[in-house]
Amino acid sequence: MDEENNRTTEEGWHTSTNLVATAQCSDQGESYSPLDVPPSCSCCNNWNWLHISYLSIFSTFGVTIRAFMGRFFGGDCDAVAPIDDWLYPLSHKICITASGLTEQYGGALFTDLPANMFGSFIMGLMTGHSSEWPAIPWLRHDHPLQIEDGLHVGLKTALCGTITTFSSWNSQMVLMMDGSANVYIGSQVGAAIFGYIIGLQASVVSYRTGRTLASWFHLKNNPHIFGSAEGRGHDSDVSTEAKSTLKGRHFFNARVLPSFLVAVTFTLYVLGDFYWHIQYYRQLWLACLVAPFGTLLRWKLSTLNGKLKRNNMQWFPTGTFSANFIASIISAAINATLIRSPYVDSLWALNTVKSFSLGFAGSLSTVSTFVKEIVEMGDKNPQFDKKAFLYSHGTMLSCCCIGLAFYCPIARAE
């Protein structure tokens, strides 16, 4: 009997390993030891409509959350033209963050800091400590959603990746360093440096907090993985009956409900633009249209992670770095253009340019995967190892330099 129970437990571990491998593959930053070459990410190479649908749907959610969190925590405090909608009466009194463009000091607490912290927390909540853990650690190992790998792709790569944004964070620090756009304060190099430090540390702590909560729920819901007597003897595979329920309420929760909510959200944005004549909502529905393209590009770039074999650099997440680097260039150039010509040619052109920065560049870059890779490098390497430090600070330094190189000539052009 003991032999049979042990065999069942081992089979459950293998099943959970397969489930988690799918989820880790779906995430932009593959989970692998920085000392080893990562496995090939087959799901990233497999362009199927289920994954594309999930990525597109959750990109819309992510952009929406990031935009409204930015307004709620400080974006509406320094608005030149107040947005007369349901949020403004409350949000214009909550002035925690600053854009670096007004006479308000405190730009180190940049506009997208709360969104980066929240997205990193969700990423931690979706990440296990071990390959033996289920794909969604806080659910039971035999829950039907554990086999819905499209949902895992959507939650990690799209939702977390688009709630967080490296490009907007970097662009605000570049804008503050340059100082030409702020007629009140000028250059704020010190505040920008602290903005990089605070942004990194706050996101890392948020990720660790989410992963700790996931561990607590996992210990409660899946005790067999920890070798407890309570879990022994359970079949860890997703049962046939459980799989069939995916066609019922779980199918509705995983596929129908997100699609319905996205349709409602997009419709409200269009109504806000054309019926209530609030220009801000034009920027949002345009951003929702271009956000999936940024997410899909980042997803494909993730296949480059671990492919840099020169000088034993397999540990370096080339795909994540490339996504953040490219998005930083796009965002810096757009912000400089808006500073130089704030009204462009028309309201349509202005909102289109802003939506490209908010939607495409914001979704192409990511902080959640960035901090996930940093934490895993630190966990899987000796304490004296330099990989996590070089990757984190090297990314911020290089993106800052390239951002300044594109921003300054455009913003300061005569």
Any chance you could write out the topology, listing elements then pairs?
Blueprint (H helix, E strand, L loop, with lengths): L1 H25 L15 H4 L3 H27 L12 H4 L21 H13 L23 H15 L2 H13 L10 H33 L18 H5 L4 H26 L4 H23 L16 H23 L6 H18 L3 H13 L6 H25 L3
Please explain how this structure is put together:
The chain is globular. The termini are far apart. α3 crosses α10. The longest helix is centred in the middle third of the chain and has 33 residues, at 189-221. The chain contains 15 helices and no strands. Residues 1-43 and 228-236 have low confidence and may be disordered. The protein is mainly α.
Stretches where pLDDT is under 50 for at least 5 consecutive residues are 1-43, 228-236
Cα-atom radius of gyration: 22 Å
Order of helices and strands: HHHHHHHHHHHHHHH
Structural class: mainly alpha
Average pLDDT rating = 83
Shape: globular
Determine the strand fraction and express it as a percent band. Answer: under 5%
Q: How many strands in all?
A: 0
Cα distance spanning the termini: 83 Å
Number of helical segments with 4 or more residues: 15
Major beta-sheet overview: none
Fraction of residues in helices?
55-70%
